[in-house]
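Quick note —
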Amino acid sequence: MTWAIFFVGAAILGWALCHPVSALLRRWKCWDRPNYRSSHTEPTLRGGGFATVLLVAGAVAAWVWPVDRLLAQAWLGGLALLGFISWRDDRHGVPAGVRMCIQTLVAVGVVLAITGRAAPVGLILFSVFALVAFMNFVNFMDGINGLVSGQLILLPLGAALLFGVAGDVTPLLIALVMAGALAGFLPFNFPRARMFLGDVGSVPLGFSCGVLLLWMAVTAVDSVLYKTLAVLPFYFFLEGSLTVIRRLKRGENLSHAHREHFYQRLVRSGWSHSRTSGWVWALQIAVTALACWQWRAGWRVEFLWAAAGLVWGGFFAYAETVFRHSREEGEK
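Predicted structure written out below.
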């Protein structure tokens, strides 16, 4: 019950903060206007995730700073840099190379703060690559109502369930505040979207979620918990990677907008945003339940990875089948 207070409190604060943020976005005319690649049909405010980012930054300052000042500085500095460049990108556009350089810089900072300079070079490089990829995949998938905001609620909550009995209280608090703040934003994004996270929300929040998972993995009492935690973001990595591979095979420019994600194909096939997001959420809950069961039962984590791969692979195959069937019906 005590832990629920942090989640509920963050949700109330997040919901309340979204109102002035929405008013400012309207004043500044921050509208995402649909085009032929969009999954939405009405102009929608872009940048609402700024309210959630503020709460996450406040939680890091309040609870991480006293216990690990180096990590707090790297985390807050990363949020500031990513927030600034992402806001500029939302408003005026920023070259992809500039964005990637800044994302890599902040990733290096937090990875070194968490793992230490004595960590193996391979581990540092892999962690930096994974963190940069994750924040970009989160950003790429913020395309339909509720999908990313809902996933970024379920990811920290799943991590909290796994980590709660295996490590320090501080990462647990950050996870609950992050999930709660996004729960406060969700009514503005689902089932009808009045605001999108925008780059200013999705990139810093993807960064923070990745930092949280890495921090939990390194500081957990049980040194093998990282293998179980790694299954939680499978959806973003698998869908993002498969989509990138498909687009590379076609020779497409990865920095250009597109509609080739599996969730976009379902929407193009006639599925509603609510139905599509609901399926992704349900499967994420199933994967999290499997992870909790595996962790408590003590089964080999490789079985969990295989099961999660089958869950998401089956969903992607089904989405592809639905899409191709709808195309064939449309051609008749």
